[in-house]
Amino acid sequence: MNIRLDGKRALVTGGSSGIGEAIVMALAEAGAKVTINCHAHLEDAQQIVERILKLRGEAFAVQADVSKPEAVAQMFQELDEKWGGVDLLVNSAGDTDTVNGENRCIIFP
Fold it and tell me: Kind and range of the H or E element at 103?
């Protein structure tokens, strides 16, 4: 299947590693402009931006803790200023927590 997303504006939370990074690259390869959100590893997100730019794609990174509403509002303001909004949102941000001695994944809404 060949899906084209030329000119679509995508935001991937948790996009600086793992599944989020794979999603970012797939969206960029499909022609989307990609915003890579990260909480703590801005340098990793910037490296992914550089890879996309070398492929002649469009991307930028924004650092925001998506568990905090004010940080999310600021992130969307940056997106509006950069690209005039978002067409696609992929929530890949998450964390782990230990509950009763077991690691559990927390996905941020």
Answer: strand 102-107
